[in-house]
Amino acid sequence: MGVNQPKSTARQRARASTAWIVGGVCVSLLLTLAAFAWATERSLAAAEANEPFRALSRSPAAQVSFGTELAPEIRAAVAREGDAQRGRDVYASCAVCHLDDGGGRPDGTFPQLAGQHTSVIIKQLVDIREGRRSNPLMLEFARRLSGSQEVADVARYVSGLDRPLHNGVGPGTGLEVGVALYARDCASCHGAHGEGDASRFIPALAGQHYAYMLRQIRNIGAGRRGNAHPDMMALAAGYSDAELMALVDYASRIRGGGAGE
Fold first, then answer.
1. What are the sequence ranges of the domains in the chain?
2. Bridge partners of 197?
3. Most buried of 13, 37, 116, 195 (most Cβ within 10 A)?
C-alpha cells in the first residue's frame, strides 16, 4: 500500500494539471472570440466613419467605377465567365463572416450576399481592392484574389446561392412613411420589388439586413462611403434620420428580386 500510494497521488496530480490546462485553453479561446467580435464591430464603425473619406467620396476619381469610366478590372471581371465550382472554393474563407449560406449577420455586422447580382459583387470587391471603398476587414480578403477571374468565380458562386428568408428587419414603426419614400425615391433604380439592376451595378435590396442597410445609407448621406454614386449621396443626405429608418425598415421587408429570381 505504501508503494501504490505515490503512484495514485501522481496520477491524481496529473489529472488535475490536465484539467487546469484544458480549462485555461477554453477560457482563453472564449476570451479571444469575444475580443474578435468586439474588435470587428469597433473596426467597422471606425473605418466607415473615417473623416478623410468624405473628400474622396466627392472627388471625380472616386466615381471611376460608374458609367463610361468603369474601372478596368471591373470590366475584365464582368466580361469573364465565372466558374461557380472554383468560386465555392474561394468562398470558403468568406464564409467565416458571411456564413456558408451567404446570409451574413442579422445584426448588420456582415451583409447578406446570397442571391446578389454578380456584377454588384464584382464591383464592390474591386472597389475595395483598389481603394474606392474603405473596408479594412474586407481588404485583406479582397486582395488575396489572384485577379479578375477569381473575382468573377466567387461572385458567380455567391449570386447562385438561395437567399435565406429570415433577414434582420427594423422595428416596424413608420412603415407607411417608408413605403411612400421607397416608391418615390428608390423604386426607379432598385426596383419595385427590391430586385436591383445588374446592368447598372445597382444592388438588390430584397432580403438585406436592416441594420446593415441603415449603416450604409447613413454613411452614404454623410459622404463616408467612397464608391457611392453622387446621386445616391445627394438623395440620402436630404433625409432626416427618422425617414432613413422608416425607409430602410420597409426595404428590409421586401422579399422579391435578385439574381436568383
1. 55-252
2. 202
3. 116
Q: What does the pLDDT look like over 56-101, one tens digit per residue?
A: 334 444 445 554 478 999 999 999 999 999 999 999 999 999 999 9
Going by C-alpha positions, the residue among 201, 179, 178, 180 that lies closest to residue 189 is 201
Neighbours of 224 (CB within 10 A): 23
Residue 108's closest CA among 215, 205, 222, 236?
A: 215
Measured in whole angstroms, how far is the alpha carbon of residue 74 from the centre of its chain? 19
Instruction: State residue 56's pLDDT score.
Output: 37
Q: Let me know: does 153 contact 84? Beta carbons within 8 Å.
A: yes
Degrees, nearest 5: CA angle 252-123-229: 70
- What is the average per-residue pLDDT within 164-173? 94
pTM of the model: 0.76
Q: Which three cell numbers stand for residue 75?
A: 470590366
Contact assessment for residue 116 and residue 201, using Cβ atoms and an 8 Å cutoff? no
Confidence of residue 221 (pLDDT cuts 50, 70, 90): very high
Helix axes 136-144, 4-48, angle to 10 degrees: 100
- Report the topology of domain 55-252: Cytochrome Bc1 Complex; Chain D, domain 2 (1.10.760)
Instruction: For Cα atoms 84, 88, 89, give the angle at the middle one, nearest 5 degrees.
Output: 125
Rg (CA), the chain: 23
